[in-house]
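Structural biology now treats backbone shape like a language. To illustrate, our science desk offers a sequence and the tokens encoding its fold:
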Amino acid sequence: MTIKRAGDMHQFTITDHYQLMHYLETEGREGTELLPLLKSKLGSALRSEVQSVRYRAPHLVAMVAETIEPIELAQGGPDAVHPVSIRSITLDDSGLKVHGHFGFTEALINTCTEVDIALDLGLMWLADTDAINLRKELESLKAELDSAREINTLLIDLAKTLAEEKGEQLQEQIIDKATATMLSESAASQLVADTDDEVADLFGSSLGGMLQDDIHCTVWEQVKQLHVVDRLALCLCEPDEELETWVANQYGEFPTPTSCTDIKLSCDTLIDQMARAVEGRIYEAAGVETEE
């Protein structure tokens, strides 16, 4: 339970030893001493100058020694009495309606450990609060990173499933279209149309290299015409761990992948494979036997 804060900070100072004893005795009768619980809760973040933290309806009250440099404290001697600040925060009574002593005390502890209240009551230094917040932030970021990696693993599995379902179909579609394009618009049509037995194998001629380049470019053009989802599905059919490598490389990279409209994965190996398949289809159309 969190008690709502409903007031401004108040402060007064005790300068006399008898005033201090009277204050502690008064608070002892009317309030619960929270300091031992706060020490276990806040640990080293709790200032050593804090001497008492109690609830005195409707105020949460802390007794904190004024900041004294160690050298000044040594000069004053161990028996010297130093001024003590009494800091209080008015609490919303409606937030104190908890059942049982334990629940009430737990609510007060939770209130004392809220950063803004702890600072106002002088329970923690601002530097200590920053360190605590930084540690909590690091722990939170680590948890988020672990969660993100688990989600990435799940998404990779889903993407692989998509690739398995559509990859073969997409490859066949690209091979068919690229073959049709080559047979109708390129020098490959010469090989199919020419029936002379003495005609040299076009792939083995001086034009062979250019023809293979044309096939490769045609296949790539067909890939680029795919919808982005289909293109990703095709790329995930790569024999290498293309997606895992890409995901691993994104950690710590800026701008983040979410700023991209198109996630680009390589499918060079598949393009080479599909280009060879197109080459084979052209041989088949020309009635030329190829070596396996």
Q: What stands out?
A: Residues 145 and 251 are 10 Å apart (CA to CA).
